[in-house]
Design brief:
Mean pLDDT of chain B: 93
Distance between the termini of chain B: 41 Å
Largest interface: A-B, 30 and 28 residues
Radius of gyration of chain A: 13 Å
Largest sheet of chain B: 6 strands, mixed
Low-confidence stretches of chain B: none
Shape of chain A: globular
Oligomer: heterodimer
Order of helices and strands of chain A: EEEEEEEEEEE
Shape of chain B: globular
Helix content of chain A: under 10%
Strand content of chain B: over 45%
Radius of gyration of chain B: 13 Å
Structural class of chain B: mainly beta
Largest sheet of chain A: 7 strands, mixed
Low-confidence stretches of chain A: none
Order of helices and strands of chain B: EEEEEEEEEEE
């Protein structure tokens, strides 16, 4: 069964460093999402992406964050200068359609620890 | 702004019991999603529903659009059902597939 994959599974970085989290969505999917979950808190929406553009972003997704689909398979989330509060589990998701009545498929997550 | 609330936050049951987890949301939505989060963190979609009821094995999900309420039921619960169950809404003021999540219900089923 097709699945969303994410690398690395765990990333440790120092405050102020740039990190890139990678995702490979399901191959025929066109809509991509990043979510994050700070330990003990709700999962929060960060950004949705379609046709090489951001469709929607949350207040969390400020200038320190960017997303890119550098080739036909990868979807990346970059955090330019990490802060302690960026420590969280980051989930990538994809769907084959972009509207509200479609199931999203989640990757296993990348645990980001900022020290 | 849509708020999604779940109850209870924690639930302990004996194997075989019938379990109900509730979810309410504050504004009109297009669909309500039920997801399962395993101890390792991975998230799996269980149901997406916009009206009525859906059943998959021992899991049943219902939604009442007028009351802005959904329930997830597990019949004949088993220890392997132990996980965090999360409801999330889509639609409303968003025209993308963005999900707004509840805080999750941690279920432990004891043998």
């Amino acid at each position: 069964e097709p699945e969303v994959t994410q690398t690395p599974s765990h990333q440790v970085t120092q405050m102020g460093q740039e990190v890139i989290l990678r995702c490979v969505p399901i191959s025929n999917h066109l809509y991509f999402y990043w979510y994050r979950q700070i330990l003990g808190q709700k999962v929060e929406f960060l950004v949705s992406f379609y046709n090489n553009e951001i469709s929607e972003k949350s207040e969390i997704f400020d200038d320190q964050f960017s997303v890119e689909r550098p080739d036909g398979s990868n979807f990346t989330l970059k955090i330019r200068s990490t802060k302690l509060e960026d420590s969280a589990m980051y989930f990538c998701a994809s769907s084959d359609q972009g509207h509200h009545l479609v199931e999203q498929y989640f990757g296993p997550g990348t645990r980001l620890t900022v020290t | 702004k849509n708020e999604v609330e779940q109850s209870p936050q924690n639930l302990t049951a004996q194997e075989g019991e019938f379990i109900t987890i509730n979810c309410s949301y504050s504004v009109g939505i297009s669909a309500l999603h039920w997801l399962q989060q395993h101890p390792g963190g991975g998230i799996v979609s269980l149901f997406m529903l916009s009206s009525g009821k859906k059943k998959h094995g021992r899991l049943i999900a219902t939604i009442n659009i007028q009351e802005k309420h959904s329930s997830l039921h597990i019949t004949a619960s088993h220890p392997r059902d132990s996980a965090v169950y999360i409801c999330a809404s889509s639609g409303g003021s968003s025209n993308t597939g963005k999900l707004i999540f509840g805080q999750g219900t941690t279920l432990q089923v004891k043998p």
